[in-house]
C-alpha cells in the first residue's frame, strides 16, 4: 500500500476516460434511513479498460441545504430540501478503496450528506462517481415516550391497537417517522403500510438495546387529517421464548414514535407518542411467534386506520416507565420479504382434525420461513385454520412432533360471504407443507422472509446434486437469518445459538452480504457477555434471564462462546473491513482472559472438567444424548481455547496491541503443547480430533503431515462416511486439503449414502438438516427423541452447511487471502476432480466481481479467472512433475501463450489459464462400499469403480 500523502499525485488535468468508479457505499445497507452519522466509512469499486489499479482518491461531500427556491428566489412550499455546496476533500495518494474515513466530520443528527468519489490511475483522474446519500439518525426521542394501555393486555391475548390523527395544513418538504416498540409492530399511515419491514423492531438484547427504524413518509402524507395506526403484538419481547416461558423482558406492550415534519419556510413539527394517542382492541386475538396468529375479521374496527373513525370509545394511552437510553438506530437490514413461492393446492389431504371440515393441502416446492397468503372463498362466520409443518409422513399427514410445543396454527374467522385474501401478521413459521381446514382454497403463496437480503455469490459445478445442496444452504441461511442467526425456524426454540453462528460465519459471509447483520448481532453478544468474560451460549441471552438452565450450561462453552472472535474474524477475512474486529476486541480479550483464569483455577494447566456440548450431533453419538461424541469434549475444549487465543493474537496485530498479541500467541502455544501431549493418541483416532488438531493449530506444524495421513486413512476406511458433528464438520475437509488429501475430501463431499451432505439431497431436502439421518434410507423419519423426553429434529438447520465455504475455496478455487483479506488478493486454488468435470464461482467483493471457472480437457485443466480492479490474484494450482502452466491472452487468430509458474500473481483483468498435465483428485462418485480412492497416485482402497474418474 502506498502511504497517504499528496506529493506525487497525478496531474489533476489528466483524465482516465476508460475507468469509472462504481458501487460507492457506506458500511450501512443503502436503503436504511437514520444510521449513526459519527463514524461513516466509504468503500467503492471501479471498472476499467485502461488500468488495473488505483493510485489516489478524492472525496467530495455536501450537506442538505435550505429548501429549494422557486424561480423568484422564494422557498417552494412543496419543494424538496435543497442541497448545499459541494466541498472537495484533499486528494490522497493511496490505493485504499475500502472503509475510508471521508472528510467533513460527523453528519449532523437528522441531516443527510451526499458523497462522491473519484480516483486516479496511472492514466489520470476519473470522472466523479454517482452520489451516495447517507442520512444520519436524529438522536434520542425528544417528544415521543413509550406508551401502552392503562388496562394492560394479557400475554398471549389480543394485540394492542394504537392510533393518532395528525392534521397537516401543507405538505412538508420532508417527513420522517421514527418508530420502535416493546413487542413487534406493524405501522400504517392513512391505511397504507409504512415500509416493507416484518416483525419490527426485531430481537435484540432488549434489556440493553432496542432498535429504532426511520421511515421516509413524505410521499404518504396528505393535506388535511392523516392517521398513524399501529398494531403491537407480543413478539420476542413478551411472548413465549424457548423453554423459559413468557414476559421475560417485560409485562407491557409498548410503542414509541415521532413523526417529524419539515417545511419549506424552515418550520418544524414533531408529533410524538404520548397520552393523547388512543388505544383499543381489534380482531387480532393471538399473535404468538410459536403458536401462530388468530383474527376474527368481524371484530376488526372498520376504518380505524383512516381519518373519520370514531375512537371516542377507545382509551387514552398510558405513558410507560421505560429508560429511553435503550433505544438506538438500526444498523442492519430488517426482516423483509425475499421470495414468494407458489404453492400446489390439493383437496382432501389428511389433517388429523377429526372435525369433518373440508381440508386442503398446500405443498411448497421449498422449505421456507414465513407464512401462507391464501385466497379463499367462504361464508361469514366460518373459521379457517392453517396448520404448518416441515415434513409429511408416508400417509401424507403433517408430522408435528418436530414442532414440539409450537402450535404453528393461523386461524381466521371470516366477516362476509365470498372471497378473502388471508395473511397473518406478527408471526412466522418454518414450513413446507400446510393443511387448510375450512373454506375453499383458490390459491396459495408461500411468503418467505429474511434479514439476508443481498446474495453475494454464485456457484455451479458438474454435479446437479452438489449445486442443489449449495441452494439448500443458501435457503437455510435465508430462513434462519430472521433478525438474528437462529438455529431453526419451526419449533419452540429459534434461538441465537453461538455455536451454530460460529460454525457457519465464514460460509454466511460468502453467500450473502452479511457484515451489517453480524455487526448488529455481535453488539448483543457483547452486551450479554458475563462480568467474568464468559460468553453466553445463546444471544440474546434470554435463557439465563428465565433461569431455564444452570449458568454453567449456558455460558463459556467451547465452540459456542468462541463466536466472539471467530465471527468477526470471518467477516474481516471475507470483506477486509476492520470495523467488526475493533468493535469486538474488548469482548475477545475478556473471553480469552476468562479462559486463562479457568486454566489457572485448577493448578493443573488444564481447564476444569465440566459439561461441554462437544462435537454436538456426531453421528456416532447416542441419538438421545448428542453431546456424547466420539471425540473427547475435554480435548475439544482445549483445542478451541488454543484457537481463540490464536485469533485474539491476529486481531491484536490488526487493530490492537502487539504486546498483547504476543501474550495471546504465547498462551496458545503453551496450551497447544500440553493438549497435544495429553490427547495426541486420542485425537488421531477420530475425524474431528485430527481435523481440529490441524485446523485449530493444536498439533505442531511438523506433525501436520502425519495427522493428515491419519485423517485420510480414517476417511478411506469409512468410504467417505462423515463422522463429525457441529464442531468437527467445518474443519474436516479443510484439514484434508491442507495436508494434500484432495481425493479423500472429494470422497466425503460426493458421497450420497448416509451420513453425507448429498444424501440429504437424494432424499429431497430443500434445506439443510439438523441430524444427518433425519430421514432414513427406508423413508422413515427420525423420532428426534432426546434423553429428557424432548424432540430435537429440524429440517432447516444451517450448521452442517458450513462445508460450502470449503467448496468455494477448494472446489471452485476462489478464496480471500488471509494475509490480504477482503479479496484484495484472491487466492485461485482449485483442487479439480475428473468426477466433477467443471466448477465455477463468483463473489461480489468490495473491489468488484471476482470469479473462477475451470473445466477438464483431457489431461489439461482450463481456467478463466476474473480479477476486479485494484485487486490481484495469487495462483495456487494443482500440478505434478512435468506440468506446464500458461496464461493465454487474446482470442481467435491472435493468441499469445506465455508460461508462468503455478504460484504466479495476476493483475486485475480477465485471464485464461491452461495447466498442461494438471493434477486431479481421482475419486469415484456415488456412495456405498467398494468405491476406489486414489491418493498420491496410489490405489489405497480397492473395489470396482461406481462412477466416472
Give structural notes:
By secondary structure, the protein is of the alpha+beta class. The protein folds into 5 domains: 19-135, Immunoglobulins (Immunoglobulin-like, Sandwich), CATH 2.60.40.10; 147-329, Sandwich (Jelly Rolls); 336-450, Jelly Rolls; 457-751, Glycosyltransferase, CATH 1.50.10; 825-918, Maltose phosphorylase, domain 3 (Sandwich), CATH 2.60.420. The protein contains 16 helices and 46 strands. Strands 19, 20, 24, 25, 26, 27, 28, 29, 30 and 31 form a 10-stranded mixed β-sheet that branches. Strand 35 (814-816) and strand 36 (825-828) form a beta hairpin.
Instruction: Give the structural class.
Output: alpha+beta
At the fold tier of CATH, the topology name of the largest domain is Glycosyltransferase
How many β-strand stretches?
46
Summarize the amount of helix as a percent range.
Answer: 10-25%
End-to-end distance, in Å?
45 Å
Count of alpha/pi helices: 16
Compact summary:
By secondary structure, the chain is α+β, with helices and mostly antiparallel strands. It contains 16 helices and 46 strands. The radius of gyration is 29 Å and the shape is globular.
